[in-house]
Each structure stands twice: as C-alpha cells, then as structure tokens.
Design brief:
The protein is α+β, with helices and mostly antiparallel strands and 591 residues long. The chain folds into 3 domains: 93 residues, Nucleic acid-binding proteins (OB fold (Dihydrolipoamide Acetyltransferase, E2P), Beta Barrel), CATH 2.40.50.140; 264 residues, Bira Bifunctional Protein, Domain 2 (BirA Bifunctional Protein, domain 2); 124 residues, Gyrase A, domain 2 (2-Layer Sandwich). It is 29% helix and 25% strand. It is built from 16 helices and 22 strands. The protein has an 8-stranded mixed β-sheet, with helices on both faces. A hairpin with a 4-residue loop joins β18 and β19. α4 packs across α6. The radius of gyration is 30 Å and the shape is globular. The chain starts with 21 loop residues before the first strand and ends in an 11-residue tail after the last helix.
C-alpha cells in the first residue's frame, strides 16, 4: 500500500476485496471516454490503471471531468464498486472494479504530448530521446527500470552474502591507457592539468587488494569511454565490478556462475542446472570463428585447409601459399539461388573476396567447384561434413578474415533456418586467450585484454623472445553470442609487470609516469594472487528482457552521436567558464 497524505492506494492495487471502500487516488489521465452520459477515465501511475467514473448528476464535477485531457495529473476521491457485467477487463488486476468519483482536484495540466504514452505506438528514436521524460511514462519502460532494480537487488544480495565489501571508486582519476579514449576533465585549481573519467575501476580495485580488502564489488560501477556507439554501447555504461584475493581463475568462474544462476532464478524464475560451457580461445575460434560463440545452435565451422590443399582450385592454392586458411560450414538444407547470392553478398560485405560452395547430392559433391576436387577430396569433405545432403560453404582468406566472415555466415544461416531458441540462455566461458595480439597498423604488440593481466606461469619464459606463444590467465563470459564481461588474474609482481609493459613498447620511465603509484604499491604486498571481472550490467539486463539495445534499460541514454537530445548535451559553455579553466578554443568552422 502507498498511503500518503494525498492517496490511499496505487492505481494497480484495488480489487473486489476493496468494494465499498472510500479511496483517494492520484495519477495521469490515460484516456477519456463518454459512454451513455457517463465519463470514464483510465487513471495511470507507475503501478497500474484504475478506471474512474464521473456521474452527470454531479454537474459541477462532471463538467470539470469533461475538461480533462490526456496526461493531465489529478487527485480524486471516490467509492470502489463492481464494474457492470460484461464490462470487466480480465487483462488488468483492477479490471473487475471501478471507482465512482465524489471529488476531483487537478494537480497539473498537460499540453498535447508529442509522442503517444502507449506501448503499442512507438515513436522514432530521436523523438523518444528528446522527450525521454514522456517515453519513460510508458508502462514497458517503467517495467524495464523495475526489472533492472530487481537484478541489482539480487546481485547485491549475492555479493554481500559472499563477504564482498561494496566500495565506491573515484570518478576523477589519472588519465591512463586502457584501450579506449578518455573523457578529459580540466582542473580549475591546477591550471593546465587534467583528470580523466574512469574507463573502468581497474587500477583502484587492484589498489583495494593491496589495501587488504580481499573481496570488493561495486554496482553500478560507472565506466566512461569516448568511442563510437551502437545499440549495445554507450559513452557511459554500468558494470558489476569485483575483485577477489587469494584465488585462481576457477574460483572466480565458479563464483560468477553461481551469481548468474541465482539472479536468473530470482528475477525470471528459471533454473539453470547445467555447468556453463568452457572453451579455450583456440577451440572457440576453430569451431565458431570468434571468441563469443552463440551455443544455442550447432553449425560448427571446420578448418579444411589440409583437405583441399590437394584440390585443383587455384584460389585455394593461392590462399594456402600466402599462409591463409580455408574453412567450411556444412548446412543440411536446400538453398535457393537467391539464398546463395545473399550469403555471398554478406561474405563480401564483411571483407571476404567471395563465398565458394558445393552441394551434396546422393553422397556426391555437385556444382561448378566440385570439378576441381579429385575423388579423395570429395570423400574427405563429405566425411568431415557429417551431413547426407545440403551445402558446403567455404571461405578462403587470412586467418582473421576467414574466421570473422564465416562466423557471420554461420549466424545468418542460423537465423534463416530458425535454429535460434530465443528463450534459451546459453552461457560459455572462453579461456586461455593469448596475452598479446599483433597490431598490424602500428607494427607492435598490444595487450589482448589489458596490461595488468597475468601470463600463465609456464609461458612467462616466452615473454621477450616469443610473445605470440604467451597465453594469459584471461577469461571471458559469453551469453548467447554476446560478451558479458572479461576477467583475469592480475600481475601482482612489479618486476613481471614491467616485463609485460616492455613487450607492448611501454618504456620504464613512461610506465613509472603513468602507473608508478600502482607499481610502487605492489612493493608492500597484496592479497595475491588476485583477480576479478568487469561484468556488463546494462547488457545483461537487456538480454534478460529479450532485447539487445541497452538504451531500453538506461533511463537517460545518448544517441549514436553521443548526444542527449533531451538536454542538448554536449553543448558550448560560457567564455568565462573556459577562462577560469585556462582553456582557449581554436576557431571551429561550422559546416
């Protein structure tokens, strides 16, 4: 019950148990109808809808009710009665009753809304963001925010129950290279110097391990990154961030597996009994072409480079000679010519030179490509495909392009064949990532995740001479083909940290300048070995609600240009503010 001085009940609360009660309600006028001389209004608040009725016998009240328009905010007093037979609404909790009104007070008037406050009529993205305060009145948006809160409560309860201490980390931090561009904040009291907004709490949660806080979490941990946007990315997003001391990667994965199962049980009522799948990075790339596989369907990719090397197809030979690979996707279906053309167009749009294919008919290969395959290759491809009829799709290119493109083709084929079970939740751990990846543009090694991730002990010997061989204590959590978060065991040895920084080209003096406070802190011991994760919270909530757009679970998101149409941010500032910050802008030419 939401009893206050202005209301006795919410609009989603009254039932037949409340018949003959005198009640006071507040809310927005959802709609107004005049039936047989009676005025009916659906009164809406966050909790639901109550039908209220005005009798023409009460002339002044009836006239006042007739002036009400959509989204006017009112307070009413009246008596709960049964709805007339045949007028019940079984879809509403309050659908068996109505309230006959004795008193009406108009709390605020509304102009005609520029968008409909109706889940069935969805405005354009630009209008929804410009009038977000109206969009948030829609029941579906309020349910999304309520659902988000339920996930927060379930997660916080679990973390606290496992002895984690919630600690808020700073929002004004030192600029450090963490993979994306920093948002920079000038300091007025320190002219010419700048803070950054945190891309993540990474350095501070490691400091907390040194501080003796052996189990830290933060929800939400606000992370800000100046990067290009898409539906599952915002300049500011929330993480469930945590760090644990005296653990290995199995300890972390077991705990987070239990966390997610608990949340899903509490907010969806679903029980996930099976263990989350665990694949190495190499296995994931081999079978699915990426490190975030959707395991709700099969369609595994196969490396057939060694099989087709004996073919007479010049394209395959050329790729093999240039150290590329050939991978195959076997699909047990009947494709039309148009289907093949569409898949080929997808492949070329993603960067491949084309899509090769053959058809299996009566245990034989058929099609233009088949004539380049000798009998031995025919037999080996059919055996590898494990299908009796259908199509074999091939991509031949570099390792990176082949995996990327055929992985995309796999996803498209799954959609075409309706293989994706939308209500299924398939989690997977991806482990044993390379610690480094080669940056072709800059001709240097970069950290695969971040520079504080520890190499597996048995690979430390390769750090300087063969960085490509080094595997890290790295692990990602994936749900239905979407990465939920990345984690690692951290480097807690300053000397090892300096060696890793040296591999990526970070000189000792630069490392001291940027990370000296962290390296120095580790000289005094830590809760090590320690590790943790940053789990994408907005993304997880959105997926549980059946959407991939995180803007549906964020109250005030930005658009694809990182702008907020509602408050017109970002915007210019007054010259005196810039002067106080000792900032002078270059002249910007407006297009």
């Amino acid at each position: 019950m939401l009893k206050t001085s202005l209301r006795t009940h919410s609009n989603g609360e009254l039932t037949e148990k409340d018949l003959k009660k005198k009640v006071e309600l507040c809310g927005f006028c959802q709609s107004q109808r005049d039936h047989g001389g009676l005025i009916f209004i659906d009164l809406r608040d966050r909790y639901g809808i109550t039908q209220i009725v005005f009798d023409p016998k009460k002339k002044d009240l009836f006239k006042q009710a007739g002036s009400l328009r959509r989204e006017d905010v009112i307070r009413v007093k009246g008596t709960v009665t049964n709805r007339p037979k045949g007028m019940e609404n079984k879809e509403l909790k309050t659908g068996q009753i109505e309230v006959v009104i004795d008193s009406l007070e108009i709390l605020s008037k509304s102009e005609t809304p520029p968008i409909e406050i109706d889940d069935r009529i969805v405005a354009s993205e630009e209008l929804r963001l410009k009038y977000r305060f109206l969009d948030l009145r829609r029941p579906i948006m309020q349910r999304n925010l309520e659902f988000r809160q339920k996930v927060i409560i379930a997660a916080r309860k679990f973390m606290e129950g496992n002895h984690f201490l919630e600690v808020q980390t700073p929002m004004l931090v030192r600029p450090t290279p963490e993979g994306a561009r920093d948002y920079i904040v000038p300091s007025r009291v320190n002219p010419g110097q700048f803070y950054a907004l945190p891309q993540s709490p990474q350095l501070y949660k490691q400091i907390l391990m040194i501080s003796g806080i052996d189990r830290y979490f933060q929800l939400p941990a606000i992370c800000l990154r100046d990067e290009d946007l898409r539906s599952d990315r915002q300049p500011e997003h929330s993480q469930l961030d945590f760090e644990m001391g005296f653990v290995n990667e199995k300890d972390i994965m077991d705990l987070i597996e239990e966390l997610y199962k608990t949340i899903i049980k509490e907010v969806l009522g679903k029980t996930i009994k099976e263990k989350f799948s665990r694949l190495s990075y190499e296995e994931s790339m081999l079978k699915y072409g990426n490190d975030k596989p959707d395991l709700r369907y099969g369609l595994e990719l196969q490396d057939v480079t060694n099989i087709v090397k004996d073919s007479e197809f010049k394209v395959f030979h050329s790729v093999i000679e240039s150290n590329g690979i050939i991978k195959m996707l076997a699909v047990e279906t009947e494709f039309t010519r148009k289907n093949i053309e569409e898949l080929t167009e997808l492949a070329t749009s993603e960067g491949a030179k084309g899509l090769a294919y053959v058809k299996i008919v009566e245990n034989k290969l058929d099609g233009n490509l088949a004539k380049f395959f000798p009998g031995k290759v025919h037999k080996s491809l059919i055996e590898a495909s494990k299908i009796k009829k259908g199509y074999l799709l091939f991509i031949a290119d570099s390792y990176k392009t082949t995996n990327l493109v055929l992985g995309k083709v796999r996803q498209d084929v799954a959609r075409r064949l309706n293989l994706i079970k939308k209500d299924e939740l398939k989690f997977a751990w991806i482990t044993d990532f390379p610690l480094f990846e080669w940056n072709e543009d800059e001709q240097k090694w970069d950290a695969m995740h971040h520079i504080f991730s520890s190499p597996k002990p048995e690979y430390i010997k390769y750090l300087e001479k063969s960085p490509e061989k080094v595997l890290g204590n790295l692990f990602d959590l994936v749900l239905n083909g979407t990465e939920l978060g990345s984690g690692s065991i951290r480097i807690s040895n300053p000397e090892l940290q300096e060696r890793v920084m040296k591999v990526i080209g970070l000189k000792k003096e630069d490392a001291e300048k940027k990370f000296g406070f962290l390296l120095n802190a580790y000289k005094y011991g830590s809760n090590g070995p320690h590790g943790g994760m940053g789990l994408g919270f907005d993304r997880f909530v959105a997926m549980l609600l059946g959407t991939n757009d995180i803007r549906e679970v964020i109250a005030f998101p930005k658009n694809k240009a990182a702008q907020n149409p509602m408050d017109s941010s970002p915007c210019e500032v007054e010259p005196n503010q810039l002067s106080e910050l000792h900032i002078k802008l270059d002249t910007l030419k407006k297009k």
